[in-house]
Amino acid sequence: IFPANSGNKEITWMMLEAGAETDVVNSVGRTAAQMAAFVGQHDCVTVINNFFPRERLDYYTKPQGLDKEPKLPVKLAGPLHKIITTTNMHPVKIVLLVKENPLLAEVEALQKCYKVLDLICEKCMKQKDMNEVLAMKMHYISCIFQKCITFFKEREDKLDGFIKSLLKGREKDGFPVYQEKLIRESIRKFPYCEATLLQQLVRSIAPVEI
């Protein structure tokens, strides 16, 4: 809790990587993220809420049950983990992270990655301590990966075309319509309709016209 309260993002991250638990509460029943938010250290809250232990991803790099092959090749674990733990969720940032890594920037790799993200999303929703925020994040990144695959298959300019589509604004006011539609579509496709977070997002977005 102390690193989070101090506002030191680097030390907060180091402690998380060393195995610090995020759901432990103090004497007044608050977690580190709740205490950091209480004292206004929102950068540390973001670090805690976006943390995903590497070993949880590495689980998918080993064959499970009757599987002969792992669901995620070992070489993709590092690049995928970098995207999972990023605190910048702008779709262009995520696409750039894909484009910058040759291991990720191909159809087969993205297919394996988005399927693993969907499994993590499901596990977040079905575990005892449900994590709707992390589930939604995994689903959102999965949707962007699937859209990347579409551009790889259908467009010669591939991810450059995707990035241009995301950044292009409409003539009258420069508003990025394609980007807005992509984000709304990812929310609409979230498979767990009972999620409180989903219902809050729908109530906030539905009345607002593009």
UniProtKB/TrEMBL annotation:
InterPro entries: Ankyrin-MYND_dom_contain_2 (IPR052452), Ankyrin_rpt-contain_sf (IPR036770). It comes from the Eukaryota. This is ANKY2 protein.
